[in-house]
Specification:
Distance between the termini: 226 Å
Oligomer: single chain
Helix content: 40-55%
Strand content: 25-35%
Strand order of the largest sheet: 2-1-5-4-3
Largest sheet: 5 strands, antiparallel
Radius of gyration: 70 Å
Structural class: alpha+beta
């Protein structure tokens, strides 16, 4: 028995040694593998960790023994995966999956995890073995690949063109979003479908082009054609088609890149129309146009310029012809010396690019120009100009005319003024205005809107409203006179005769300014007052004179009556006496003298009465024929007796040229 026991003990020691060596060999093997290996007990507490686990996680075996595997979990570990692991272990089942774990230093890593249960004799799990592998690089590569695919897909869909891949049977294998948008379909509704389904009207023509590319194995680029959109709108496209070759060189399909060039086509049409409008404007613009290039001397100073392009108006405004390709110095010799500022402006604009506008007189061309110059590129400029020679001459004439008018206004003895229609504030007054009232121009302007209330007589001021109303309602050429009193600086009132008219109007037609002239008529007014007094006095004297005339007329009428009565008696008896048959001749002469003298006295009396009627304006002239010789005989008979008494000789001599009869007043 002892020997048997010894043999058994020896055998047990040998088996123990063998088992120990086997365990050492297995542990060495586990430590040599690259995967991390964990073994937990039935409570899922770690009882073994190989060297690769320590390298993978940073935890030594001593640090993890007795710990739960949850020490590897962190904030971004997927909770759903953790639940799946727990559910599998609780069910005594294996688990294979990936989870984001954390190393001892906090760095995350992707762990490809396989957990398998070790079952006891009763079938329940006694141990769990976990195999771990760091797949961070693979996950990062996969993520990078997914990101790249996403980017490529986004880029594929963002390309501003339709892109599709088709096989040789005219089916769409892949399309981008632009294709979907152009058809009104979704991408998944196009991919895998035949072109005959997607583009029924154009499919045949498309496939003819596709076959040409597929069979020739040659790209076909720049195909421009007009299509119809999903809403039957007209669109223009440009297509590039390239064959797709398999590694063995066989054509398996093609890729098409289709650009919507509708906007470009419309832009080209608009550009063509714009160019036509530009050309029409260019050739018909009223201003001259010149595109020029500056030329420089050795010192870098602009010394000349050459004409590159001009419009048709250029020649008529400048007087220069056939200028393209020629320099200004060749066309207008001496212009650089006579007009250096022209070159200075052109050089400055060509250098700075800043637009400038100016007017210039070019003596060598005997013309004035208004020029706008700008630069489209360095050392070049564009000049748009107008010939303003006539305007300048007219302006000079206007300036001379204005100077002449101002000289007349300033030297006129009449007051000339311009005032605001509404406020009557003085805007302009000539020198005579200041002299007439003894106010300076500054004082008149300082008075401002109080000009009329302060200087015009209150009685005359009341008439201004009616005066302004007449001006406002009348035509522009209406001139209205007004006499008014204005206060002199010495406090006295001076009379002025003004003539006013509308000088300017607002855009709505209402008057804005008045032009007026005025003359000091104070002396005339004083003379008129004196004349009025004299006329009143004369009227009084005239009334008295007329009263005297009336008395004289009454006196003459009475006197005529009193004298005429006895005179008629004398004439009557002298006529009777002349009829006496035996009357001596001498006595008959006496009677004849008495008769002629009485008749003469009667005529004198009638003349006195006629004179009275003449003063009264009642005399009447009566034409009658008389014999001058008979009147002279009566005068001789009347005066001959008196001449004899005085011993005088009295005679009447009548020229032969005296007519026999004359016409005169019957009286």
């Amino acid at each position: 028995p002892a020997i048997q026991h010894a043999l058994q003990e020896r055998a047990l020691r040998k088996e123990s040694k063998t088992a120990k060596e086997t365990l050492q060999l297995r542990e060495t093997a586990l430590n040599a593998v690259s995967q991390g290996v964990l073994i937990t007990d039935e409570n899922r507490l770690i009882i073994y960790a190989n060297a690769s686990f320590a390298s993978l996680t940073g935890y030594s075996e001593g640090e993890v023994l007795g710990c739960n595997c949850s020490i590897l979990q962190g904030p971004d570990s997927d909770q759903e995966t953790i639940l799946h692991i727990r559910a599998a272990l609780n069910a005594g089942e294996s688990f294979d999956g990936e989870i984001l774990n954390y190393r001892k230093d906090g760095q995350p890593f992707w762990n490809e995890l396989s957990i398998a249960p070790l079952r006891g004799e009763e079938g329940g799990p006694l141990r769990f073995i976990g195999i771990q592998r760091d797949v961070t690089e693979r996950k990062q590569a996969e993520e990078a690949m997914r990101q790249k695919e996403t980017e490529l897909r986004v880029l594929f869909n963002m390309v501003p063109a339709m892109i599709w891949f088709k096989d040789t049977k005219n089916c769409f294998l892949r399309v981008n979003q632009r294709v979907a948008d152009s058809t009104g379909l979704r991408i998944e509704e196009i991919e895998g479908k035949s072109a005959y389904e997607i583009f029924p009207r154009q499919a045949v023509k498309y496939y003819e082009d596709d076959l040409e590319v597929i069979q020739s194995r040659t790209p076909k680029l720049g195909i421009v054609e007009k299509l119809r959109g999903p809403e039957d709108q007209e669109i223009w496209v440009q297509t590039d088609k390239v064959p797709v070759l398999a590694p063995d060189g066989k054509v398996v399909g093609l890729v098409a890149l289709v650009h919507d060039i509708t906007a470009r086509k419309l832009a080209d049409a608009a550009l063509a129309e714009s160019e036509l409008r530009y050309h029409t404007l260019f050739e018909n613009m009223v201003e001259g146009y010149a595109f020029c290039q500056l030329l420089y001397d050795e010192q870098g100073q602009a010394c000349d310029f050459v004409y590159l392009e001009v419009n048709s108006t250029f020649e008529s405004l400048s007087g220069l012809r056939n200028v393209v390709g020629k320099t200004i110095s060749d066309l207008v010799p001496g212009i650089r010396e006579s007009s250096p500022e022209l070159f200075e402006v052109y050089s400055r604009v060509a250098e700075s690019g800043q637009t400038e506008r100016f007017e210039i007189h070019v003596p060598t061309m005997e013309r004035w120009f208004s020029i706008t110059v700008y630069s489209s590129k360095k050392d070049h400029f564009i000049a748009v100009f107008d010939n303003i020679t006539e305007r300048k001459m007219a302006y000079e004439e206007l300036s001379e005319s204005r100077h002449f008018a101002e000289s007349i206004a300033e030297n006129s003895t009449s007051l000339i003024y311009v005032s605001d229609f509404k406020t009557r504030r003085n805007i302009y007054s000539n020198r005579s205005a200041a002299v007439a009232l003894a106010y300076s121009r500054e004082q008149i302007l300082e008075i401002g809107e109080d000009f009329l209330p302060k200087l015009m007589h209150p009685e005359d001021l009341l008439r201004m409203a009616e005066h302004n109303s007449l001006l406002a309602g009348g035509p522009d050429n209406l001139v209205i006179d007004l006499e008014a009193r204005m206060k002199h600086s010495d406090g006295t009132w001076r009379w002025f005769w003004t003539r006013e008219t509308i000088f300017n109007r607002h855009p709505d037609g209402t008057p804005s300014q008045i032009l007026g002239t005025a003359q000091d008529i104070t002396d005339r007014k004083q003379a008129e007052e004196k004349l009025s007094t004299a006329l009143a006095l004369e009227k009084e004297h005239s009334e008295k004179a007329r009263a005297g005339d009336r008395a004289k007329g009454e006196f003459l009428a009475v006197m005529s009556h009193e004298i005429r009565t006895p005179l008629n008696g004398i004439l009557g008896f002298s006529e009777l006496l002349a009829r006496t048959p035996d009357l001596p001749a001498e006595s008959r002469d006496y009677v004849k003298t008495i008769t002629s003298s009485g008749e003469a006295l009667l005529r004198i009396l009638n003349d006195v009465l006629d004179h009275s009627r003449l003063d009264a304006g009642h005399v009447q002239i009566e034409k009658a024929r008389f014999a001058p010789r008979e009147i002279l005989d009566d005068i001789r008979a009347l005066l001959s007796h008196q001449a004899r008494d005085k011993e005088l000789t009295f005679g009447v001599s009548v020229e032969e040229s005296i007519p026999e009869y004359l016409d005169g007043d019957a009286g």
